[in-house]
Amino acid sequence: MKELDAILEEAYRRGYEYLKRWRACAPTVFAAVMDTLGRGDDPVVREVWKATIGLTGGTGNMSLGTCGAMAGAAAAISFSFGFTQEELEKDIMKMLNVNGVVAEVGAKMREKYGGIRCVEVQFHNWGKAYIFTNPKALMEFASLSEGAEATPECQKVTGDLARWAVEKILQYNPGFAKRK
Prior knowledge:
Elements: H1 2-22, H2 25-36, H3 43-51, H4 68-81, H5 85-90, H6 92-113, H7 118-126, H8 135-143, H9 152-172
Helix pairs in contact: 1-2, 1-9, 2-3, 2-4, 2-9, 4-6, 4-9, 6-9
């Protein structure tokens, strides 16, 4: 159990720290999960990372969709199952199983942050929401970080989502980890 705790703490730390690099929650969580599990150098993982960028800020920085940290966690969990299009065409239960695991993480997020949508997390953290496509709102939100690369509140969210995604991947797909 001690080793698992260390892995989960590593995932949290990476999720927390990586947000300062890219200021983008979805790719932060996806990369934190993949790096923690020893998959970060995989060329396919690096390509999938690119697809997570637009999921940031409640999708396209609109703040109205799923929190990017949750979207990054969902992408990582889905990737860990490794199902092909053909496999899902033959057996819809595979997709439903993946969605069930993602929903377990979503339930943790709802419990801790009041929801899985970007605006819900913002209301939980600041009592108001910012629509990032509005330049004035984006500047106000950026000022919350007080000159740092990211707000600590968002870093806690990306840390938690990375931790929870790693926990579920190790629970349901332990063979996915390639840690040294």
